Predict the 3D structure of the following.
Amino acid sequence: MHQPTSQPQPHHPHLHVDLDPALRQALDDLADATGRPPEDLVRDAVGRYLDEEGALVRAAAGRLAVAHAGLLRRLGE
């Protein structure tokens, strides 16, 4: 389990991700077709994924908070 620390985590500007050959080929093909670097396409895709997943997680947390509002209120007393 991840334990939070009081020290800031180091910033890693580079991330290496291994892609299977078919996915890499699709990325390269799309980059070529759009005239954009593959790195830009990956950055955009990761950004969209994080936005979508974040929205799903926030929605689930909201549903849990509503469903357990009574218990949360009692715990806060």
About this structure: Helices lie at 21-34, 38-67, 69-76. The chain has a mean pLDDT of 88. The two ends are 29 Å apart (CA to CA).
